[in-house]
Amino acid sequence: MQQELKLRIISGVILAIVVLAVTWYGGLAFRLLSAVIALLIYYEWSTITRLQTEQPVANVAGWVGQAAIAAAILLGRFDFALSLLVFFVAIAVGFVAAQSASRWFPAGIVYAGLTGIALAEIRGGDAAGLQAMLFVFAVVWATDILAYFVGRAVGGPKLAPRISPGKTQSGALGGAVSAVIAGSVIAYFFIPEADWLMAAAVAFILSVCSQAGDLFESFIKRRFGVKDSSHLIPGHGGVMDRVDGLIFACFAAFLLATLFSLIKGDGMAPLGAALFGF
């Protein structure tokens, strides 16, 4: 157990350093990271849901779609990436309608493809994008860490015992409160133009979505009887195991920023600026 804990800590620290460095650098480096994460998520999804072994033709179509979306992300063509996502989801739905694939096929394309698009679009290429990405990371990490420790310390009723028996309502509340605090701290030090009430509200919403993402992945793994999404990360399992909360938080941030831009009627503003009201 000590050796496994050491491996987990070392790989976790290395991952955090690499991700933060690439986030700071932005540009092509972060778009590449986003595309790679999306591709690895699809690999794990197709393995967990048995698309790879039981529905090989559909799975090849899925890989073609993910590769096309990844290429559009690398080129910075997020509008085209979204169009490709819609196109390949339609193809996947066609497979399902023809009864040659399961419903997990189109769900996997959305889950992986939208993750890469949302990550890259949130970071963008400007200072507001860096601020937004650091904000999302802080909220998700604060949620994960404090939900665990508060849940262990306080205990109490389970949050979703059939899906994830270890998670408690007290942990969920502690994670949400800590996320609001962490988001407010990031807003104070790194986003002086931000509307504080907006930042706190966004932090709370992202925290709830992060916890929903964690529960969703637990549901998928329980549904297919697997413990880890893969063994790609030493001591940590798979990519999905590490970014399950981040995925749903990024989905929420992407949708919120799009909604705020539409409400203002100024076209699609940079996501970082749209999220915080400046």
From TrEMBL:
<comment type="pathway">
    <text>Lipid metabolism.</text>
</comment>
<keyword id="KW-0548">Nucleotidyltransferase</keyword>
<feature type="transmembrane region" description="Helical">
    <location>
        <begin position="28"/>
        <end position="45"/>
    </location>
</feature>
<comment type="similarity">
    <text>Belongs to the CDS family.</text>
</comment>
<keyword id="KW-0444">Lipid biosynthesis</keyword>
<keyword id="KW-0472">Membrane</keyword>
<feature type="transmembrane region" description="Helical">
    <location>
        <begin position="245"/>
        <end position="263"/>
    </location>
</feature>
<dbReference type="GO" id="GO:0016024">
    <property type="term" value="P:CDP-diacylglycerol biosynthetic process"/>
</dbReference>
<dbReference type="GO" id="GO:0005886">
    <property type="term" value="C:plasma membrane"/>
</dbReference>
<feature type="transmembrane region" description="Helical">
    <location>
        <begin position="57"/>
        <end position="74"/>
    </location>
</feature>
<feature type="transmembrane region" description="Helical">
    <location>
        <begin position="104"/>
        <end position="122"/>
    </location>
</feature>
<feature type="transmembrane region" description="Helical">
    <location>
        <begin position="197"/>
        <end position="216"/>
    </location>
</feature>
<dbReference type="InterPro" id="IPR000374">
    <property type="entry name" value="PC_trans"/>
</dbReference>
<feature type="transmembrane region" description="Helical">
    <location>
        <begin position="5"/>
        <end position="22"/>
    </location>
</feature>
<keyword id="KW-0808">Transferase</keyword>
<feature type="transmembrane region" description="Helical">
    <location>
        <begin position="128"/>
        <end position="150"/>
    </location>
</feature>
<keyword id="KW-0812">Transmembrane</keyword>
<keyword id="KW-1003">Cell membrane</keyword>
<dbReference type="GO" id="GO:0004605">
    <property type="term" value="F:phosphatidate cytidylyltransferase activity"/>
</dbReference>
<feature type="transmembrane region" description="Helical">
    <location>
        <begin position="80"/>
        <end position="97"/>
    </location>
</feature>
<keyword id="KW-1208">Phospholipid metabolism</keyword>
<keyword id="KW-1133">Transmembrane helix</keyword>
<keyword id="KW-0443">Lipid metabolism</keyword>
<protein>
    <recommendedName>
        <fullName>Phosphatidate cytidylyltransferase</fullName>
        <ecNumber>2.7.7.41</ecNumber>
    </recommendedName>
</protein>
<comment type="pathway">
    <text>Phospholipid metabolism; CDP-diacylglycerol biosynthesis; CDP-diacylglycerol from sn-glycerol 3-phosphate: step 3/3.</text>
</comment>
<feature type="transmembrane region" description="Helical">
    <location>
        <begin position="171"/>
        <end position="191"/>
    </location>
</feature>
<keyword id="KW-0594">Phospholipid biosynthesis</keyword>
<dbReference type="Pfam" id="PF01148">
    <property type="entry name" value="CTP_transf_1"/>
</dbReference>
